Amino acid sequence: MTRRDDATALPAMEGRGFYNRNSAMQAAGIAVLAPLWDRACRTVAVDEAPLVVVDYAASQGRNSMAPMRAAIETLRARTRPDRPIEIVHTDLPSNDFASLFRALEEDPASYRSGLDGIYISAIGRSYFEQLLPDGRATLGWNTWSMQWLSEGVGGAADHALAGMTADPALAAAVRARQAADWRRFLAVRARELRRGGRLLTAYTARAEAEAGWEWLLGSLWEAILDLGRDGLLTAEEQRRLTIPIGLRTLAEIEAPFKAGDVRGLTLEHAELVRVPDPFRADFDRTGDARLFAQRHADTTRAWSGPALAGLLGPRDDNGAVIDALFARLAGRLAAAPQTHEPTLAVVLLRRD
Amino acid sequence: MTRRDDATALPAMEGRGFYNRNSAMQAAGIAVLAPLWDRACRTVAVDEAPLVVVDYAASQGRNSMAPMRAAIETLRARTRPDRPIEIVHTDLPSNDFASLFRALEEDPASYRSGLDGIYISAIGRSYFEQLLPDGRATLGWNTWSMQWLSEGVGGAADHALAGMTADPALAAAVRARQAADWRRFLAVRARELRRGGRLLTAYTARAEAEAGWEWLLGSLWEAILDLGRDGLLTAEEQRRLTIPIGLRTLAEIEAPFKAGDVRGLTLEHAELVRVPDPFRADFDRTGDARLFAQRHADTTRAWSGPALAGLLGPRDDNGAVIDALFARLAGRLAAAPQTHEPTLAVVLLRRD
Fold first, then answer.
1. What is the helix (H) or strand (E) element at residue B43, kind and residue range?
2. Which value does ipTM take for this structure?
3. CA–CA distance from B252 to each of A208, B163, B248, B249, B258 (Å)?
4. Nearest residue on chain B to A117, judged by CA atoms?
5. Using CB atoms, which residue from B97, B98, B119 is nearest to A133?
6. Chain B residue with the nearest C-alpha to that of A83
7. What tens digit of pLDDT does each residue of A39-54 get?
8. N or C: less crowded end of chain B, CB within 10 Å?
9. Angle at which helices B318-335 and B289-312 pack, to 10 degrees?
10. Residue B345 forms beta bridges with which residues?
């Protein structure tokens, strides 16, 4: 759950490297994807046309380093070691591109480090638009973003996450928005990908029974209620603090393909997996519930903090309220630690 | 004089839109270039290969809007109205790309406004590196940047601008650095441009007799000395405040071509012009010397402020000193207003 794709509203992620430093959950999810990404890189059509790898929703880039490096190595092994490769990172206009470019230049983990012939660019525009000319992209990579609704559908009086409300009308609005977003995303990617191209997209989703977010975001909702009881948030503000994220089921992901509505793309692979908790092993070893909770709270803040600050709106003490909210969250998580293993939808598409 | 191309050091331009709001001088220079840019757009080779226009050293983008729009219109008139066109804005990693992307999305003056099929990206890397694969660029546009040295050559004890020092050793170091930078810039552009491509580059330079910066930057040096007399700057700090900009002569610009050292590029056009003072007409009408001076001081700060702040180094009152410096500059300019008409070198290159 890393970002929000409403170009009209909020900063996508916490800036100044905070997100980069607090995205271990996302990194764990990306590790899960490595075999499927390798398959995409090995099977994608390559010829003398420029090789262009697109990293959709790159954020500050940290979690893009390993998959981009893997793509470069596999594509060069399949063609020639000095084959020029273009990498395009996309995100919202408000994204912290300066951190991304700096990391690419300076970070020893940069996928360009030590390599020649790698040409990197960025596109600051919502991926619900066509971002590249027809047929330009060889490979696409997109993780932890497509759970964000393209626009909000209103506040929930019973949860911090739009996709986890029990309100039938709101839940239906979330489903409708997500279905439309998914079709739009697929339609523009189908134009951008060249024939034989591959797109891997992975985002948090839900098994029928559970989402995997019950502990973390249930606690976030409880923290919001805490602040309400303390007089820090009005009832209206508590309602407004609804992160515009939905959780698709596998059936919802497959639906447009089964309906024959996705021209040019074939669903090669779609499954739900559980992402391992990156902080659990340390916790089991040390028993330090406070540290375990703080790490989860920081990770949650890194992807949701700017969205919540925007939803809270222009209060003079906006920053202090968000600080208080995540302090409460950390306290609640420490008091009742559980394993956080969110559900991830893993989807590989082929351009026909 | 808009930017600095040392990726290791300073922010290139004042951020948060200050540069966009205070770049009328640069805009005036760009207006001077319109006929030559039109010639480049009309004569560049076009076929079915992707049309890619590269805006080197884009800063926050404001001064790129008109030339990019002109290129789109001319290229589409020469091919077809819906021809896809890619625009690539490059600048240092530290550049304020968020302002650039926002302006492209939201500013009514955005060259994309009302158009389909325009694909925009950004590259955050020094243009002394090869930024695009071989032969990818159709047209290149670069203004007000190549006067910046790729790295500093030390402080001057007699001027605020490295290129205007009377110290023979320092002046020689500036000339050597600028000669090497120019050759490097041309070499990597020659790789990026496709055959028949065109590159327009324009930067402030010097006629043999004068540079056109005597009043403005002479006053800046006097303002530095003022702060020294007031005890705000040590002698060492005064020396250190040397903007790493040089001013090439026409002969220096032509030298590598005459020597046959520029493989693949032909010098189609090179001349020196004077850029009209954008604030002079208002001043003549109103007689408001204070406003006239403030506008010139703000314009100067927009391109030089971050560089000077970096050169001053980590003082707790760094921001206050820079404020004081530009207040002094405004005072001096108001006390003795003159017309500011800097010399601009205008260069058009053809890729053979």
1. helix B24-43
2. 0.87
3. 72, 13, 6, 5, 10
4. B133
5. B119
6. B133
7. 999 999 999 999 999 9
8. C
9. 150
10. B203, B272
Pull the structure tokens for residue A19: 């997100």
* B110 touches B87 (CB < 8 A): no
Distance CA B144, CA B91 (A): 12
Q: Which of A50, A88, A97 sits opposite B97 (nearest CB)?
A: A97
* DSSP-assigned states of every residue in A223-262: HHHHHHHTTSS-HHHHHH--B-B----HHHHHHHHHTT--
- B97–A101 CB contact, under 8 Å: yes
pLDDT in tens, A328-347: 999 999 999 999 999 999 99
Structure confidence at residue B28 (pLDDT) = 78
Is A202 in a helix, a strand, or coil? strand
Inter-residue contact B336 to B265 (CB < 8 Å): no
Q: How far is A235 from chain B (nearest CA, A)?
A: 34
Burial status of residue B108 (CB atoms within 10 A of its CB: 0-12, 13-18, 19 or more):
exposed
Q: How far apart are CA B50 and CA B274, in angstroms?
A: 36
pTM of the predicted protein model: 0.90
Q: Is B286 exposed, middle or buried (0-12, 13-18, 19+ CB in 10 A)?
A: exposed
- Supply the DSSP symbol for A63: G
Q: Give the distance, in angstroms, between the CA of residue B99 and the centroid of all CA atoms in the same chain.
A: 18
- Are the C-beta atoms of A312 and A323 separated by less than 8 Å? no
| For B117, nearest residue in chain A (alpha carbons) | A133
A19 vs A288 pLDDT, higher one = A288
Neighbours of B336 (CB within 10 A): 11
How many CB atoms sit inside 10 A of residue B24's CB? 17
| Cβ distance of A98 and B134 shorter than 8 Å | no
pLDDT digits (tens, 9 = 90+) for B191-239: 999 999 999 999 999 997 788 999 999 999 999 999 999 999 999 999 9
**Residue A97 near chain B (CB below 8 Å):** yes
Question: Which of A53, A121, A129 to mutate: most B Cβ within 10 Å?
Answer: A121
Q: Give the count of alpha carbons within 13 A of A198, CB side only.
A: 18
Q: Cβ–Cβ contacts within 10 Å for residue A248, how many? A: 25
Residues of A in contact with B136 (CB under 8 A): 50, 119
- At residue A8, φ and ψ (nearest 5 deg) are -85, -10
- A120-150 in b/e form (b: 16+ CB < 10 A) is bbbbbbbbbebbbbeebbbbbbbbbbbbbbb
To which H or E segment does residue A110 belong?
A: none
Q: What is the pLDDT of residue B12?
A: 57
Q: Does position B298 have pLDDT exceeding 90, yes or no?
A: yes
Whether chain A has a CB inside 8 Å of the CB on B249: the answer is no
A124 touches chain B (CB under 8 A): yes
**Structure tokens of B298?**
């703000």
Q: What's residue B131's pLDDT?
A: 98
Distance of CA B290 to the CA centre of its chain: 26
Q: Which of B7, B123, B134 is the closest to A120 by Cβ?
A: B123
Say yes or no to pLDDT of A10 above 50.
Answer: no
Contact A4, A307 (CB under 8 A): yes
In the numeric block, the tokens 């760009």 are attached to B30
Within 8 A of A104 by CB-CB distance, chain B residues are 93, 124
Length of chain A measured in residues: 352
